[in-house]
Specification:
By secondary structure, this protein is α/β, with parallel strands linked by helices. The chain contains eleven helices and 13 strands. Bound molecules: zinc ion (ZN) (2 copies).
Amino acid sequence: MAPVAKVRVAKLVLLGTGGPLPDPRRSGPAVAVLAQNRSYLVDLGPGVVRRAMEAYQLGWLKLHPNQLTRVFVTHLHSDHTAGYADLMLTPPAVGRVDPLQVYGPPGIVKMTDHLLLAYEEDLATRREGLTEDKLAGYRIEPREIEPGVVYEDEIVRVSAFRVEHGEWKNTYGYRFDTDGRSIVISGDTAPSDAVVEACNGCDVLVHEVYCEADFKHVPPLSRSYFSSHHTSTLELVEIATRAKPKLLVLYHLLLNRCTEETVLREMRRYSYVGEVVVGEDLAAS
Ligand SMILES: [Zn+2]
Ligand SMILES: [Zn+2]
């Protein structure tokens, strides 16, 4: 691929399509929206910085770790945030000179403060002797947000919407509107009308999913967890049929006995007629 410094029409690059399980093929949940000459991340699953470097090496120049300065966190589950410390500490060592802006649900400020405290000795040695401009790359600016438009610059408008995720009161999905393209990311959610409303014919909907065939084999306690926190293929068909994305990308796959093929087969069996792909790490659309 020829190096891409500027993206004319916004692109989605999947940095991590896994869920909580340590699947070596699928890094923890993290996606990037690239528009013009900027990159915007959603979620910080484990492995996010290394996958971003991999994407950079593939030609997505704005995913060099030193370009990662804007992040939107869906919720504070560890599989979505275990890469946060890495994103705080590693990019300044490879040239990040701008502060890291982090948008997330209530609790993101506390998480940030605790991580900074946990790494205070490391930070003290890394910062020692640095000039003011280099120090800025270590600065973290967390903001706790409510649903609505949470960010706007000359390239993109980002809106957060509240989704259903069991006992988590503040779990968000995000919609990115750019010149000519809209991208919606569900985060972790049980079937949620808010996703339908946020997408409403969007260009790309990135949605989490688990396999219906697996669900039949899980014990009753886990079943209620699954149905209150996540979305099955059967449920996603209903959601996506109403949301009408031009492209549906599946991520955060919770697979046990199922495979990626089973998931797609189920989507077809339950009569999803739209375009759908199983997301792979580093795939772009
Ligand atoms: Zn998750
Ligand atoms: Zn979660």
